[in-house]
């Protein structure tokens, strides 16, 4: 079962376009949503949340249309923005009084638990909070109404490495549960290495892949060897290849061919998410990738 499903969604604003977007976010897993800055990740989240409307296509959340079932669905979603769009002059107490009525299952005890956990004072105004404290408050709000789906839009953007790791640990400890679904958009790909089960990759306004992370990473290999080994036929087997003084590095789904020809003269490794994205951003286009890994 899918928590989120997009079918042939198209959207355009001025020169920006999203073309025929289709992907699923499976229920009960952590799905990483990746792509370069400006590619349209936040726009897609706004479309999912019905903050803007697509030109065509279908968006389902919990197998229902948000526009028709907005109140019910949003009560089941914990939404964490990269920024808190609240009045900086408000205290945490006032923020809770404003937000709590929007949620049928608002849990004051749980909110207090997270305020204590994050050392956030109720009588302090938002303008006195650091970026990390604001993100923790956003997490506390999202975690305090017993949501089933958590949508996180760049939750670690602008945080220093220590606070970023702390936020990721919180997400991992509190949300990785068979009954919870997490959809996390980020351009900091290393954040996903320890928490993602599933990956959606957006490039050039199109979905490159949408699959379980292990399945994706098992299909690609990084091959390193001497540049003198490379000919046009081998280059055609690589999605991306780069050369340096010590040799070449290639991303391919045909590492067995390199191994068969060169044996121990090549080094073959499984890519990390960040390496895979960097090579694919530089490399070939969606249709060629899909034809090979589908």
TrEMBL record:
Coiled coil location: none
PROSITE patterns the UniProt entry points to: ABC_TRANSPORTER_2
Domain of life: Bacteria
Keywords: ATP-binding, Nucleotide-binding, Transport
Keyword ATP-binding: yes
UniProt xrefs under CDD domains: ABC_DR_subfamily_A
ABC transporter domain location: 1-229
Keyword Cytoplasm: no
GO MF annotation terms: ATP binding; ATP hydrolysis activity
Gene3D superfamilies reported in the protein's UniProt record: P-loop containing nucleotide triphosphate hydrolases
The protein, known as: ABC transporter ATP-binding protein
Taxonomic source organism: Staphylococcus shinii
């Amino acid at each position: 079962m899918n928590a989120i499903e997009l079918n042939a969604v198209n959207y355009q604003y001025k020169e920006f376009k999203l073309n025929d977007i289709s992907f699923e976010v499976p229920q009960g897993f952590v799905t990483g949503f990746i792509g370069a800055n400006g590619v349209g990740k936040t726009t897609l989240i706004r479309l999912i949340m019905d903050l803007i409307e697509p030109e065509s296509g279908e968006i389902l959340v919990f197998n229902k249309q948000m526009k028709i079932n907005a109140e019910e669905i949003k009560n089941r979603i914990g939404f964490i923005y990269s920024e808190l769009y609240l009045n900086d002059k408000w205290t945490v107490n006032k923020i809770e009084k404003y937000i709590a009525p929007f949620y049928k299952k608002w849990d004051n005890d749980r909110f207090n638990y997270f305020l204590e956990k994050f050392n956030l004072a109720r009588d302090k105004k938002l303008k006195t909070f650091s970026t990390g404290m604001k993100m923790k408050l956003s997490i506390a709000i999202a975690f305090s109404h017993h949501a089933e789906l958590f949508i996180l839009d760049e939750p670690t953007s602008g945080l220093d490495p220590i606070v970023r790791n702390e936020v990721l640990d919180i997400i991992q400890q509190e949300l990785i549960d068979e009954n919870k679904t997490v959809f996390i958009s980020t351009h900091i790909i290393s954040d996903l290495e320890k928490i993602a089960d599933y990956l959606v990759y957006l490039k050039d306004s199109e979905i490159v892949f949408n699959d379980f992370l292990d399945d994706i990473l098992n299909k690609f290999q990084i091959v390193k060897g001497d540049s003198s080994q490379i000919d046009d036929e081998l280059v055609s087997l690589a999605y991306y290849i780069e050369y340096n003084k010590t040799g070449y590095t290639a991303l391919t789904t045909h590492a067995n061919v390199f191994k068969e020809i060169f044996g121990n003269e090549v080094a073959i490794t499984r890519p990390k998410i960040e390496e895979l994205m960097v090579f694919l951003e530089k490399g070939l286009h969606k249709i060629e990738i899909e034809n090979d890994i589908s």
